[in-house]
Amino acid sequence: MSTIVTETIEVHMRLINFNYWRC
Question: Superkingdom, according to UniProt (predicted)?
Fold first, then answer.
C-alpha cells in the first residue's frame, strides 16, 4: 500500500510540475 501512495505522490508531483512549466 505504501508503494501505491508513493507512486500517486510522484504522479501528482509530475502533474504539478507539468502545469507549472506550462504557465
Answer: Eukaryota
Compute, in degrees rounded to 10, the torsion defined by CA atoms 7, 12, 18, 20.
-140
3-state secondary structure of 23: coil
Band (pLDDT 50/70/90 cuts) for residue 15 is very high
Q: What is the pTM of this model?
A: 0.46
Helices (H), 1-23: 2-22
